[in-house]
Amino acid sequence: MHLDHSHEGPAAVSADAARPDGTRRALRIGLGGPVGSGKTATVAALCRTLRDQLSIAVVTNDIYTREDAEFLLRNAVLPPERIQAVETGACPHTAIRDDISANLEAVEDLEEAVGPLDLILVESGGDNLTATFSKGLVDAQVFVIDVAGGDDIPRKGGPGVTTADLLVINKTDLAPYVGSDLGRMARDAAEQRGELPVVLTSLKSADGVGPVADWVRAQLAAWTA
Ligand SMILES: Nc1nc2c(ncn2[C@@H]2O[C@H](COP(=O)(O)OP(=O)(O)O)[C@@H](O)[C@H]2O)c(=O)[nH]1
Ligand SMILES: [Mg+2]
Predict the structure, then answer these.
(1) pLDDT category, 19, cuts 50, 70, 90?
(2) How far is the CA of 118 from the centre of ligand 2 (A)?
(3) Range of the domain at 147
(4) Is residue 128 in some structural domain?
(5) Is the CB of 124 under 6 A from ligand 1?
């Protein structure tokens, strides 16, 4: 995503929305954010919540391993043929922003192998607050930060926090243990983001991913409208 990213929603991005045969391709949603904030846990929970209604596939990006893909496989959130790992071998943001070819190939392979798909989730390898996706790779993006990373993170800004289509502040269950002020995090995030949505989640509670799943459903409704 670039700083001039439009917030009209994925329906506004229609340049290559069709497959070569004219049918609509899957909506592609990127998940970025610092290492350990809960991106893989969010992807897993989204798959469990949405897989009965939607045809879903996942691309993971790890620097040197297939760790995230293997976690998703071990937990059987989707059949193995719906999960592809990209080993970035370098700064993870390079593979989702600068040279997106390996990721584009992965999403196109998935569409071909198991499509038609409704939704492809692309998880970034995750590094810092500056990692965002190219609009050539995803139609919308989610930035995941967490309460344990410090309650000043929303205030520090950066393109992920300020411009992602959805900001997720995860691990709210840990707030009492790390002394994070959730109200302050929500206020600071709103101040950075204007009208853009922010949700607070705890993936340790039942249907903790609910607000993110609702947002994904709304994006899909706009995409297929
Ligand atoms: N307490 C708590 N732990 C969480 C939550 N979400 C994820 N985790 C844990 O945080 C760790 C990192 O999560 P992961 O999804 O691998 O982070 P990623 O690096 O962003 O993909 C794992 O041990 C998860 O089980 C949450 O809402 N609450
Ligand atoms: Mg991960």
Answers:
(1) low
(2) 22
(3) 142-225
(4) yes
(5) no
